[in-house]
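Predict the holo structure. Ligand: fe (ii) ion.
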Amino acid sequence: MSPDLKKEQKASSERPLYRYSLAAKVFFLTIDLITGIPLLMIGFYAVLTRVMALTGIRRAFLFDAEFEDHAEHVHAQFVEEHPEWEQQPVNNEQVKERGSLATWAEVFRRIGLDERDHRNMSVVFCDKPTYVVRYDGMPILRWGGAP
Ligand SMILES: [Fe+2]
């Protein structure tokens, strides 16, 4: 079953943001400040996540869940801000390989839902499966805990 991308974009917009930690807020602010400097962004992210993983892998996954939650909401908002994308057909061969997404609005909805999938995997890996945001057509999550 394929997910209803429009329904899930609306659900993403309506679901409150996760209560981000101070570390996540500082990270988002820093990334906003250095956007446009790809090597600095990549280096900052690589060092930060490496340090987090070395100091506590569950905390590192929670940080990732915060990051993915933020990304999901940003993509949902991005589609809301660009209603013209509903009429713009996808004519890029690489994007077409991703699936049958007719318009750019659908492409960005799909990316937003991918972020939710990433978020869900990370909350499972940090042992918080009750934070999984379920939807029809979502991938099966496997972990050692209760379903
Ligand atoms: Fe992601």
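Residues 5-127 form one domain. The chain has one domain: 5-127.
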